[in-house]
Amino acid sequence: MSRRGTVEEKTVKSDPIYHNRLVNMLVNRALKTIQQKIETNPLSILRQAIRSVTTRFSVMSETVIRGVTLDIAVKERRIGGSIHQVPIEIGSTQGKTLAIRWLLGASRKRLGQNMTFKLSSELVDAAKGSGDAILKKEDTHSMAEANRAFAHFR
Fold first, then answer.
1. Which stretch is the leader sequence (predicted)?
2. CATH number of the domain encompassing residue 60
3. Is 13 a domain residue?
4. From CA 95, how far away is CA 108, in angstroms rounded?
5. Does any domain span residue 9?
6. pTM score, two decimals?
7. Spatial CB neighbours of 127, under 8 Å, sequence gap ≥ 6
8. DSSP H or E stretch at residue 142
9. Nearest to 109 by CA among 142, 133, 81
10. How does DSSP assign 17-30, residue by residue?
């Protein structure tokens, strides 16, 4: 415990338009651009994009309950002098955080006018099931599938 006192827990204020804590000015502008392009609810497009980029992995093993979906990622572990990509299970909040990070990274790499336009295009593509963020998710899935033999190194 600190001798100077305790730190007050900070609460993040929600956005007045969409009533969401994730939405800031950049995302607000991107959602307005989506609404002008597609003329649908942009918040549902955002949710659908995050849901489609989140790494879901279906476990079909005899020892585990069939049909269970897990959020999965790969992590580098040094074992016996060599580095292996080990598939690990992550929580749902970590999966959403990874999805948002991949969406932002893919939108930064896009060619375009400004970040608002690039982010809106990436969100629409991810909601449709295409784009660089979806490719990143598929690469993670294939890496986890290829290195399934190292899963006991968790």
1. none
2. 1.10.455.10
3. no
4. 20
5. no
6. 0.76
7. 45, 48, 49, 52
8. helix 132-146
9. 133
10. TT--SS--HHHHHH
Q: Which of 93-102, 107-116, 119-128 has the highest mean pLDDT?
A: 119-128
The CB density around residue 79, as the number of other CB atoms within 10 Å, is 10
SS3 state of residue 111 = coil
Residue entry with tokens 């040094």: 78
pLDDT of residue 45: 93
Candidates 106, 89, 84; CA nearest to 55 is 89
Q: Is residue 91 part of a domain?
A: yes
Q: Rounded to whole angstroms, how far apart are CA atoms 108 and 27? A: 13
- The rounded percent of the chain whose pLDDT value lies above 70 is 83
Which residues make Cβ contacts (< 8 Å) with residue 1, sequence separation at least 6? none
Confirm if 56 and 45 have CB atoms less than 8 A apart.
Answer: no
Q: Which amino acid is located at 23 in the chain?
A: V
Mean pLDDT across the chain: 82
For the chain, the domain total comes to 1
